[in-house]
Write a structure and sequence with these properties.
Length: 373
């Protein structure tokens, strides 16, 4: 492994407090700094990550795909059921033309999850659903009585409840990101089937807008965590619906570029000023172009970015002020001809959508409501 380039990397990280190590293309550890010994990860030179139970074969395959696609992959080594060490891995080519990977471990955050925020937010959302169920018939009754002021008051309460539901989902995801408790359960997915079902489901609820789905290819297969990936996509779609004026045009398109599947959500809405595009993925950044005031909590795109990167991919935003926005999610694809990763049986996408309806409604209901006005 010794050459000028890799020697420079080793010299750079040898004395670093940040634990890190280098692997070859087969994920055999070639070098590690002393800080790795201070972590709970029992790793030594010559170990192969495929032999370690801290990462699954599917995660390592995704990691390999990400490195070859020149993407940064973020994941977590499993230490125990509730204890993880997050890492970031990037690939580089040595002067010997061989591929190497540099793993950098984030040991600054303890991964023992003492608060079950998933359960807390679940109870929280259930209570809000209960309030909505009371408000809905009350609003209809007031409309029949033409009580304009009362209708405005009820609708205002209803709108705030919708925002709270969306906030509860994204807060929980962001908390898991901060604590490192962000393990994904990967399954094979026909992306065309998933997005066709998702688009049809969303269009049922939209009144003034509709979403068009297009795909350039038939076989677009990927390894995804259905629950997490839907959260990322729904957050992006929610933005497109909310910031599209009137009968806005929204398109979800799928394509393949090299080893990556491209998911692009496009709208012809208000766009994002050029000086703010670089801020949209920052936690808690939110902006209303009409009032110059924060709008919402500002975690949706932060969470979408984290989920895309956890899949070995990336997310970017391209926008022109007052003309519209494209948000592009890029994740590694798998080839149908690959015997190990072939889609063995078609997942039941109806069941997947049904199982995620509470999150679907929580993330999009605020946008559905904005579509009415």
């Amino acid at each position: 492994m010794s050459d000028i380039f890799t020697d420079k990397i080793i010299n750079m990280f040898s004395a670093a407090k940040q634990p890190c190590f280098i692997c070859d293309e087969l994920f055999t550890v070639l070098w590690l700094n002393d800080s790795v010994k201070d972590t709970e990860l029992t790793l030594k030179k010559g170990d192969n990550l495929y032999d370690k139970s801290a990462l699954s074969d599917e995660e390592l395959n995704l990691c390999s795909k990400s490195i070859k696609a020149k993407n940064t992959f973020k994941g977590s080594f499993k230490i125990s059921e509730k204890h993880y060490l997050p890492f970031e891995v990037m690939g580089f080519e040595g002067e010997d033309k061989k591929e190497y990977s540099l793993f950098i471990i984030d040991s600054s955050v303890k991964k023992l999850k003492e608060i079950d925020l998933d359960r807390i937010t679940s109870v929280y959302r259930t209570s809000i659903f209960g309030i909505n169920n009371v408000l809905s018939p009350l609003s209809s009754d007031l409309e029949e009585k033409s009580s304009t002021e009362d209708i405005k008051l009820v609708n205002s309460i209803f709108n705030e409840c919708l925002k709270m539901m969306k906030t509860s989902v994204n807060t929980c995801e962001y908390y898991n990101l901060l604590t490192g408790d962000y393990k994904l359960s990967f399954s094979h997915c026909d992306m065309n089937s998933l997005f066709k079902k998702l688009t049809d489901q969303i269009n049922i609820f939209l009144k003034n807008k509709s979403i068009t789905f297009t795909s350039s290819q038939k076989n677009l297969l990927a390894l995804i965590d259905f629950d997490k990936f839907l959260i990322a996509v729904l957050n992006v779609i929610a933005n497109a619906i909310e910031f599209s004026a009137g009968e806005g045009e929204i398109t979800i398109s799928l394509d393949k570029q090299g080893d990556n599947i491209i998911v692009k959500v496009s709208d012809n809405g208000v766009g994002i000023p050029s000086d703010r595009i670089g801020l949209v993925f920052n936690p808690f950044y939110s902006f209303d172009s009409d009032t110059n005031m924060p709008k919402g909590v500002g975690l949706g795109l932060t969470v979408a970015k984290q989920i895309a990167e956890a899949h070995g991919g990336s997310i970017i935003v391209m926008s022109e002020n007052l003309k519209g926005t494209d948000i592009v999610i890029r994740i590694p694809s798998i080839e149908a001809s690959d015997g190990r990763l072939r889609l063995k049986s078609e997942p039941r996408y109806d069941s997947i959508m049904s199982n995620n309806m509470s999150v679907f409604y929580a993330l999009l209901s605020d946008s559905f409501n904005s579509d009415l006005y």
